[in-house]
From TrEMBL:
GO terms for cellular component: extracellular space. InterPro entries: Serpin_CS, Serpin_dom, Serpin_fam, Serpin_sf, Serpin_sf_1, Serpin_sf_2. Belongs to the serpin family. This is Serpin domain-containing protein. Residues 18-325 form the Serpin domain. One of its GO terms (molecular function) is serine-type endopeptidase inhibitor activity. It comes from the Eukaryota. PROSITE patterns: SERPIN. It comes from Hibiscus trionum (Flower of an hour). Transmembrane segments: none annotated. Gene3D superfamilies: Alpha-1-antitrypsin, domain 1 (2.30.39.10), Antithrombin, subunit I, domain 2 (3.30.497.10).
């Protein structure tokens, strides 16, 4: 069944945020050998907040990266995304029996800058984030465990889908595992996703069936990085340019502002009880001076990718890769 919001939410996970995530996975998983987890959803929201405080060529560049044509469209999409993560319930503020998600995003400005009330209202009221000179809180909440398995074989890799229980008709979360056939095939798999970013949005033709040989390791790790260099390398350079950035809608005054750093941190834990994941992103703003089939089996005994996705809208909340499930446990 299609819901009215679906046509709108299909624009949420732009190729820019997904490509950013995949580039970081390639760099850290394939090249540096580290477990990695990133939230394209969180990056989309933080870029939307930067857009709310921008004008001119900087705003147009952000429009392009976010797949939008106006601030109204960006703010409307952000509002729906946030509602998708945590729909309101009259009794307790959350949907009963649904996955419970929590994201912390924030914009830090250099000491002494006088924030414009409009920008503060947008950040706090629409994005439920902070725009101030202080730290921001990162809360972690768990998602309910999986209830069934679906598995499919594709060229060079297998897919396992674990849907989460939900009572909300417009939310349908699932966790995907992508297991290369080759034990050393993770790098090739990541390159394939980089060359075909549409795979993240693909509705895989999976078959529900019993899997007699099924094993996915427990894992828990954190990953954090500074994203400005990766974004600049992908063409989003104007917000970071101290001489060209037009972040004129954030604070009063005539001195030019620019984005100094974008910090991103994620935590992921998968065990028999289910999945716990948290993400936070912070921006530092300063002044100038992501046929026949064999018997089904899914044994993740070598490096693999994973993704947490809302099925109806296509929004990708987390993507990552596991090289060693014992790291950071």
């Amino acid at each position: 069944m299609e819901f009215p919001r679906q046509a709108e939410t299909r624009r949420f996970n732009t190729s820019f945020c997904l490509q950013l995530a995949n580039n970081i996975l390639l760099e850290n998983a394939a090249e540096n050998g580290s477990n990695t987890v990133i939230s394209p959803f969180s990056f989309h929201l933080i870029l939307s907040m930067i857009a709310a405080g921008s004008k001119g060529r900087t705003l147009k560049q952000l429009f392009y990266c976010l797949g939008s044509t106006s601030l109204e469209q960006i703010n409307s999409s952000a509002s729906q995304m946030i509602d998708l993560a945590s729909p309101a319930n009259e009794r307790n503020g959350s949907a009963i029996g649904d996955p419970d998600l929590c994201f912390a995003n924030g914009v830090w400005v250099a000491e002494g800058l006088n924030l414009k009330p409009y920008f503060q209202e947008i950040v706090a009221g629409l994005y439920h984030a902070v725009a101030k000179e202080a730290d921001f809180a990162n809360k972690q909440k768990s998602m309910p465990g999986p209830r069934l398995q679906q598995e499919g074989s594709f060229a060079g890799f297998k897919i396992l889908k674990l849907p989460y229980k939900t009572n909300h008709p417009t939310r349908k979360f699932a966790m995907y595992f992508f297991l290369p056939d080759a034990r050393d095939g993770l790098k090739d798999l990541l390159h394939m996703f980089k060359a075909n970013p549409g795979y993240f949005d693909k509705r895989f033709d999976l078959v529900e069936e019993k899997i007699p040989d099924f094993w996915v390791p427990r894992f828990r790790f954190e990953f954090e990085f500074e994203a400005s260099e990766a974004m600049i390398g992908m063409g989003l350079d104007l917000p970071f340019d101290r001489y060209k950035a037009e972040l004129t809608e954030m604070v009063y005054g005539t001195r030019r502002l620019f984005v100094r750093k974008v910090f991103h941190k994620c935590l992921i834990e998968v065990n028999e009880e289910g999945t716990e994941a948290a993400a936070c992103t912070a921006v530092i703003i300063e002044q100038q001076s992501m046929s026949m089939r064999p018997i089904a089996s899914f044994v993740a005994d070598h490096p693999f990718m994973f993704m947490v996705k809302e099925e109806i809208s296509g929004v990708v909340f987390f993507v990552g890769s596991v090289l060693n499930p014992l790291l950071n446990c």
